[in-house]
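chain below, 283 aa
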Amino acid sequence: MTTPAPVEPKPEATSATVPPTSGTFSRIGGFLWWLITGFGLLATLTRRKSARTKAEEIVVYCVHCSFFLWALILTGFVGAECVKHYPNTAHVWGWIYVWVLMYTLVSLLFDIGTRTFLLLAGLFAFLWLGFSYMEQLHHVPILSRLHAYTKSLHPMFDTGFARVMSWLLLGPWIYALFQSFSRGRKTFSPNSIEEWYLGEGRDIIDRSGLKFRSRYRDLFESILGLGAGDLEAVDNNGNIVKRWENILFLTFAWRRLDEILHQRSAVVDNAASDPVEVEEVRR
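prediction:
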């Protein structure tokens, strides 16, 4: 009497398998490519619409607020070279440097949204029209004196001061780049969101039951970041579960990001003789 051969158990199927992530060297290469392509702007604008793959994902970077010092740093270096070759432009570059400095400080110190900006612009326009009315009809020289006082200030662009300030501010700006590499990388895939932290590990968030919305809380920072904004993950009760702040070029990357956020992938592992089945569902 022969003994029947044992029946090998059929492997069970697993769902929602997270695709393997790239190693540290791949992350370094991706970050360097992000820098070379203008912090991802060139790659975002020139990315051609290709056929969807079964492991589609998008990588974005959050930046530290000191990243927005780039305008002041660049103005200092460029203005110093221009004034060095054309000394008669020192007065013009002086005003340019003053306004860029003021814009940068306001961006870093205050969060001015679109509504607040429109309110302040309307208030400024109302005061300007009111002072013009008083000066023309009641001969109260308010705007003319203010204009004369502004012209008397004569801010002169000092090349040495501008260079020193730019070199000093370059340190915090480089620190912002390191923060983006070590803690700012966010990978969005159809099923999960991966956050990688240098020296600590990574977090993987399941996207089930989450809705996403973009927010531009600071208009000035959005302009410095060419469409930078925040991304919020909201549950079914309307509570904010997670917020990613200062994502560079979110305006340009939102279309592809929105496509990925509206996808769900189910990955099923079969026996070795059968291929892996992947099903994508668009909501």
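The mean pLDDT is 79. The CA atoms of residues 190 and 264 lie 5 Å apart.
thats it, cya
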